[in-house]
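Bug #77: duplicate submission created two jobs. Keeping one. Sequence:
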Amino acid sequence: MRTQVRAEGLVAQAGLRLLEVYAGLAQRREHLFAPLLDGRPPCQWRHYPEADAIDAATGFQWFYHSHSPEDRPGTAEHGHIHLFARRQLWSRRLGSKREREFAGLADSAGTAANARHLLAIGFDAKGVPVSVFTVNSWVTGDLMLSAATTLALLQKLSLDTGHEQVDAVLECTVALCSDEIARMLEMRDRCLFSRRSPGVLDDPSLEVLSEIPIDLDAKLAARPSAARQTPARLRSAGPTSAR
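Kept job's structure:
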């Protein structure tokens, strides 16, 4: 019971913090990604920041980029952030039974990659998260961890990369959308398990492994205390687009 109460308290704090970030952006009429893009339209496929945003202390890192509409047909996102865990976070876990089984399933046992891809978060033109998804290993050049280990790492997500607002949005989104993320990772593993063939991680026909839309405004509206604290909706914040 104490663990559940504590978890609910952390989620409530995440909701208030998220609203504060977007309320501040609205007051300054600033887009979430404006500092990253330096006031310019994003170049498709380019990493922002160029060498990724890395928290050397915690071992998490991320980068933002966008695709052409042809690359992701049917999506309404402006771009997305890929979130990774560096070796210090997971190297001791590779010897566990579940990680040995997952590595064998995913045909990934012998890699020397320094990072593991945790998830991606899609953003709309206003800079608000609208989806969570996973991609195959060839997309990022990094491998994956089992769903259980990935969730355990995400529960400890803490970011201080020098991009304070983006770090806060990532932390809060992961906290608020833990149920969706858990389902998404289960979908990812089912997709991989159903193939279970050598080279599945390099299969160019298999790009997005799982995806779930998220509605943060609906989540925040369900928390009356957060709504009273900061009544503005996330999608009313900032300029229409970072482009």
